[in-house]
Structure prediction request, 273 residues.
Amino acid sequence: MRLKILDLTTRLPGPLACNQLQKLGHEVTRIEWIESPDPFNIGDGENDPIFKLWHQNFNKDKINFEYSFKDFDPKELEQFDLVIYSPNKLYKDFFSNKIKRVEVLGGKELKYLHDLNALSLSTSFNLNSGELPHLPFAGIIYAQSIALHALNFIHDKENIHKKLYLSDISTDLLDLFWSPSLGESSQHLHTGKFPCYNIYRSADKKLIAFAAVEERFWLKFNDLFKLNLELKDRFDTSNSTKNIITQCFAKLSLNEIKKTIGDEDICITFLPH
Prediction:
């Protein structure tokens, strides 16, 4: 059974999931709104080109459209078997009860999360630098793909035997995240290139996952901790900004940092160990 899927997601998990569904043989249509473009396709690219590459690799084989939201008729959604979408203020009263949909969210308690924040909430997260990855990433990817392929294979009436290979699946997925055009550098946002996305320590040596990449989080962080950093400083690679943040956190205990943040959700999480 070949499904018609509409991809209304942004950033990484949703577009990547829809990429895998397309590779399984389903028809995936992607819409990006002029009023609310995917952050991976704009802005961040001038600071780290890897985002533009990911956006291109995840979406290049889909049926891609760009619309102004005000010109789109929501009844068009009824032609799809499934809509996968990221939360968006535009979607208020957008979906009727006829639309089967999956919403891709951040966290249940902390609404705003980056990959670093989510990993920091896991007791399996390992920060020991210079060592091989603690988690079996290829095996995890393989397991997820086996489940997807198995569900997809149920609808294949012509075949009764399917072979899946760890080597094929892991490279198929992981190769989307790299290109020779990026050069040989291993330093990008997700590997500590910028001070806005990094690991810091409190005065009592507790680990802090800091991921205030978006402007509003960075500005609120500066306001809460009485710093005079500019927006451009979040992508400073000279270590000057990183040192300022390091010293700021190092003067405060974890409880003092939590008290300073209060109820504000600014993409800061604390490792549970």
Q: What stands out?
A: DSSP finds eight helices and eight strands in the chain.
